[in-house]
Amino acid sequence: MTARILCVEDNPQNMRLVRKILKRGGYTVLEAENGLSGVQIAEDERPDLILMDVNLPDIDGLEATKRIKAQSALHHIPIIALTANAMYGDEERCLAAGCDYYISKPFDKDQLLDMVTRFLTSKRESNSG
Ligand code: MN
Fold first, then answer.
1. Domains in the chain: ranges and CATH
2. 38 pLDDT band (50/70/90 cuts)?
3. CA 21, CA 55: separation in Å to the nearest integer?
4. CA-CA distance, 117 to 25, in Å (whole number)?
5. How far apart are CA 2 and CA 38, in angstroms?
6. pLDDT of residue 84
7. Ligand 1 centroid to 128 CA: how many Å?
C-alpha cells in the first residue's frame, strides 16, 4: 500500500505543485484547503505524514498542528511545516507547536521528496523494532 500524505495548503498553485511532486514520488495525496478541514481529515483518514502550510485562512498551521498532536491516535504522524515566512524564530515556533520538521518556501522539490521519504522510512523502522 502506498503511503498517504495529507497536504494542508490554501494556495491552489502551491497545492498543485506539492501534489505533482508527491504523485511523482508514488504517494497518495489527500488535500485540505484550511486548518480546520486539515484537522478533520487527519482524524478521519489518519494519513502517514502531513505537510502543513503555516499561513492558512482560519486557524493557522501551528494551531492545527497542536490540535492534531494533542490526540493520542494521531500524535505519531510526522508533520512537516511549510512556510513562506522565513523569519527569525519561525523554526522554533514550528517545532514548539509540535511540528517534526520545517521547510521554508520556496522549497526544492528534491529536498521535499527526500524529507518525506526520510520520515516515512524512519517511522517504518521504529514500528518494526
Ligand atoms: Mn498559505
1. 4-123 (3.40.50.2300)
2. very high
3. 21
4. 9
5. 20
6. 78
7. 36
Residue 74: CB atoms within 10 Å: 17
Q: Distance between CA atoms of 124 and 129, rounded to whole angstroms? A: 9
> Is residue 11 exposed (0-12), middle (13-18) or buried (19+ Cβ within 10 Å)?
middle
CB under 8 Å, gap of 24 or more: what pairs does 103-108 form?
105/14, 107/82
Q: Which residues surround ligand 1, an ion (CB under 5 A)?
A: 10, 53, 55
Q: How far is CA 21 from the centre of its chain?
A: 14
Tell how far the Cα of 54 is from the centroid of ligand 1, in angstroms. 6
d(CA 85, CA 120): 26
Q: Would you say how long the chain is, in residues? A: 129
* Global pTM exceeds 0.85: yes
Task: Report how far ligand 1's centroid is from the alpha carbon of 55 (Å).
Answer: 4
Distance CA 119, CA 92 (A): 19
Structural Rg of the chain based on CA atoms? 13
Kindly indicate the confidence band of residue 129, based on its pLDDT and cuts at 50, 70 and 90: very low
